[in-house]
Amino acid sequence: MADTLTPAERSIRMSLIRSQDTKPEMIVRKALWAAGFRYRLHGTSLPGKPDLVFPALRTVIFVHGCYWHSHSCQKGRIPKQNSDFWREKFAANKARDHRNTRLLRRQGWGVITVWECSLATAKSREKVIGKLLAFLNSKRNLKN
Q1: Could you tell me the end-to-end alpha-carbon distance of the chain, in angstroms, rounded to an integer?
Q2: pLDDT value at position 112?
Q3: H or E segment at 54?
Q4: pLDDT at 15
Q5: CB-CB contact of 100 with 47 (8 Å)
Q6: Whole-angstrom Cα distance, residue 118 to residue 109?
Q7: SS3 48
Q8: Which ranges of 16-121 would DSSP assign to H, the alpha helix?
Q9: Segment 84-136, tens digit of pLDDT
């Protein structure tokens, strides 16, 4: 089936998709900030521009959208239309994510990935935030 939008309309629609300050990212940021953790946003000098950077703890957090990063959950499925294009696009995204993680670890950074679907319910959100806080607190205690 052909695209029902003109290239200009498609461009406008695609430009509305956020890569920063997404709802899942804001959930993580607000929880960590409330717990007293301070961070830098979108580390442009680091591979992959991590969403949250904790320089003193040598830790970064990526908050990945399940669709764009091709997660194994229901939200990460490949669209039926133009599936070859999307399969290649998502494979390239996953390869880039793995490469960036590998580069960061080689540079001595701890890398945490939080998936959008893990923040979908209050119960799962609480579990994920609890794990993040425990990990960051352990890193903070090792530093001191």
Answers
A1: 60
A2: 96
A3: strand 52-54
A4: 61
A5: yes
A6: 23
A7: coil
A8: 23-34, 83-106
A9: 988 999 999 999 999 999 999 999 999 999 999 999 999 999 999 999 999 99
Q: Which helix (H) or strand (E) holds 112?
A: strand 110-115
b/e per residue 88-118 (b: at least 16 CB within 10 A): eebeeeeeebeebbeebeeeebebbbbbbbb
**Residue, of 70 and 1, whose pLDDT is higher:** 70
Measured CA to CA, the distance from residue 36 to residue 109 in angstroms comes to 21
The one-letter code for the residue type at 123 is: K
- 41's enclosing H/E stretch is strand 40-41
Q: Which of 69, 111, 122, 130 is nearest to 94 (CA)?
A: 69
pTM: 0.84
**Residue 39 confidence (pLDDT):** 95
Whose tokens are 């406008």? That residue is 12
CA distance 33 to 36: 5
- Per-residue pLDDT band for 77 (boundaries 50, 70, 90) equals confident
Q: Looking at residue 2, what DSSP letter applies?
A: -
> Please, what sign has the CA dihedral across residues 71, 55, 40, 95?
negative
